[in-house]
Design brief:
heterodimer; A: alpha+beta; globular; B: alpha+beta; 3 helical TM bundles of succinate and fumarate reductases; 2 domains; 17 helices; 38% helix; elongated; ubiquitin binding (chain B); protease (chain B)
């Protein structure tokens, strides 16, 4: 009996159908990413958290977003509005988004290109994190730096808070809406 | 200390950030011989070589997981689906679909919103549905599961589902696990369970089995390959479920998990699909030759053989061998005369109320109506007898085999000089 023949005819129709509908795995990934990001956007709009916001860029590409966080009270960043960019990989949420500060910021965990050193955006990333939890983590990072990417800022944070705040304000520069 | 310029540091940092260990092979391999594992260790420590050689005999097949940090999670998840498929029980899969859905209450209780966990639960459910469909369609093997687990997104989603269930289970049962953890449980979950591509450790594995697998009734056995004393890998039961039932077997080598298949599962009896009603194209009895020799005893069952020379045809036309000449009735061949003999060949067709009148020609493939029961005439026995009974002298016609050595009928006893017949003694209790 020709089992190989039978296999192709009797195997799960779902699997075959799925492979017909999505000839490349890439496409189905993109659909899943889109679905997940749409759900996140819905969540952010229906129940916004104070001090954070995020929205996809106007170019219609759901994989790149712009977000804002407000500097928490009783930190050198109090009252400042900071813009960030999110770039989501094709296998989001199984890989973290690339998050950058667009607003120039003086902070021990952020370098002068806006790159952030935060474990949950690297090896501690979990698929249950989302835009909102990343923004909340970043907001708390502003008041609790931990990993000196900017060694000078880290030193100053420990030695002279007033001087640190002067550096923050000197570096800060509000971005115009694009 | 800083011998490198900032630019160089940046370049190295970039390289380091983008570094992906070069791991070859599929996420989940096809079944392969465990001898490949033994070969890996042939030049290693003799203890490992001995153990892997022994392993290749007790567990001849294995399935290699890609060592990308998810191997332990993936091995358990794949083993779960594969074991479920191997049982070929669609009801059980439906039960599992319901159970997996009900486990989402764990996620709710630790504060995850459905918009977050939905895609993970959906992925597990979809593969459960695929498994269900594969059983119904009589899929030959589990290749559809291997395919599903090699689709990156599907694989990641199921693993994440199992991760977040484990994490939630631990947070809801802290007393069971905290004592084994080097850090507060919440921190443990966020650094060792939740992150993508973090290897499962022993506590995490135990929690995964307690929280996710245990409810399925499957046992989980881990075989530890290390340099401890002994000639075989050390088995360890991680589930309170019976190890004799469906069991997921994992091989642990420090830092890596694979799936193992013991000898028994190779010789598993062909799986019978009990949903026999699903098929209607059975070949008719009379067309397909029976796979066994028809003997006279079987012939005593009415209508078993739809042979035209037998059954229906018999009363109509005299059979060639109808005279009772039981030359050797114990040949393993159709001895129709043995059955026919009590039946007068001229007997009229007895009216049997339940069967349709013989004039109506039945469809060719359907068994013809049974009209050839022995007539209850006075010249034949009133009951249907075993052909052996019809022999005039039953005892003489018994097969001439050597009497049992210890049988009292064995006359060889008398030729034995030491032979002593059994004497009955009145005081003896029988």
């Amino acid at each position: 009996m020709d089992y190989s023949m039978e296999d192709t005819q009797n195997s799960a129709p779902d699997a075959q159908q799925a492979s017909k509908l999505n000839p490349s795995g890439q496409k189905s990934d993109t659909q899943s990413v889109t679905k997940r990001l749409q759900a996140e956007l819905m969540q952010l709009m229906l129940s916004p958290s104070p001090g954070i916001s995020a929205f996809p860029d106007a170019d219609g590409n759901l994989l790149s977003w712009t977000a804002t966080i407000t500097g928490p009270t009783e930190t050198p960043y109090e009252g400042l509005t900071l813009k960030l960019s999110f770039a989501f990989p094709n296998n989001y949420p199984y890989s973290p988004p690339t998050v950058l500060f667009k607003t120039p910021i003086y902070h021990p965990n952020v370098d002068f290109s806006g790159r952030i050193c935060l474990d949950i955006l690297k090896d501690k990333w979990s698929a249950v994190y989302n835009v909102s939890s990343v923004l909340l983590s970043l907001q708390s990072l502003l008041g609790e730096p931990n990993n000196p990417l900017n060694a000078q800022a880290a030193e100053l944070w420990d030695s002279d808070q007033a001087e640190f705040k002067r550096h923050v304000l000197a570096r800060h520069q509000d971005l115009d809406d694009e | 200390m800083n011998a490198l310029s900032a630019d160089e540091m940046e370049r190295f940092q970039k390289l380091s950030n983008s570094y992906q260990p070069d791991v070859q092979g599929p996420l989940v391999s096809t079944k392969q011989s465990s001898h490949s594992i033994a070969l890996d260790y042939s030049n290693a420590d003799p203890t490992l070589a001995t153990k892997t050689n022994a392993l290749a005999i007790t567990h001849p097949e294995c399935r290699i997981m890609k060592g990308d940090g998810n191997c332990g999670w993936r091995a358990v998840a794949f083993g779960y689906f594969e074991t479920l498929f191997a049982l070929r029980d669609t009801l059980r899969i439906e039960t599992e679909i319901r159970r997996m859905k009900s486990l989402t209450t764990l996620l709710e209780r630790v504060g995850l919103s459905d918009s977050i966990y939905e895609i993970f639960v959906d992925a597990t459910e979809e593969v459960l549905n695929r498994t269900h469909a594969a059983i119904q369609n009589g899929a030959q093997d589990e290749s559809f599961l291997v395919d599903a687990f090699n689709e990156g997104y599907c694989s990641d989603a199921i693993i994440t589902h199992f991760r977040i269930l484990t994490s939630a289970w631990m947070k809801l049962n802290p007393n069971r696990y905290q004592a084994f953890l080097p850090m507060p449980l919440n921190q443990y979950c966020s650094s060792r369970i939740d992150p993508v591509k973090t290897e499962i450790d022993e506590v995490g594995l135990q929690a995964l089995i307690d929280g996710v697998i245990e409810g399925s009734g499957f046992g989980v056995e881990i075989l530890y390959l290390d340099r401890s004393e002994g000639d075989v890998v050390t088995p360890h039961q991680l589930s309170s479920n019976s190890p004799s039932g469906a069991t997921i077997r994992l091989l642990y080598r420090p830092g890596h998990y694979d799936i193992l298949y013991p000898v028994e599962t190779l010789n598993m009896a062909p799986i019978v699909n009990l949903q026999y009603g699903m098929t209607s194209d059975y070949s008719p009895w009379d067309q397909a030759a029976l796979g066994f020799d028809v003997n006279s005893s079987l012939m005593a069952i009415p209508n078993l053989m739809q042979d035209t020379s037998f059954g229906m045809g018999a009363p109509m036309s005299p059979m060639p061998s109808v005279s009772p000449t039981p030359a050797s009735p114990f040949r393993m061949s159709p001895q129709q005369d043995m059955y026919q003999s009590p039946m007068p060949t001229h007997a009229p067709i007895p009216p049997i109320p339940v069967s349709p009148p013989p004039q109506i020609a039945p469809p060719s493939s359907a068994p013809p109506p049974m009209t050839s029961l022995p007539s209850r005439s006075s010249d034949g026995p009133q009951i249907r007898l075993n052909p052996l009974v019809m022999k005039p002298n039953l005892s003489r016609s018994l097969p001439a085999t050597t009497p049992f050595k210890n049988s009292p009928y064995n006359q060889a006893h008398f030729q034995n000089s030491d032979f002593e017949p059994i004497h009955w003694e009145p005081h003896e209790r029988r």
